[in-house]
UniProtKB/TrEMBL annotation:
The lineage of its organism: Bacteria, Bacillati, Bacillota, Negativicutes, Acidaminococcales. This is Uncharacterized protein.
Amino acid sequence: MFYCSSVFTYCIDSVSLAPKFAISVGKFHISKLLENQQKTKR
């Protein structure tokens, strides 16, 4: 039973962390894309 509850809490933690991780990765990629665009424009 303890194993099940620990896996359950782990799933909840990963689900709550996933959006934050995705947002941070998205911001990182967007900033990189903007940098590349500025370099190519010059």
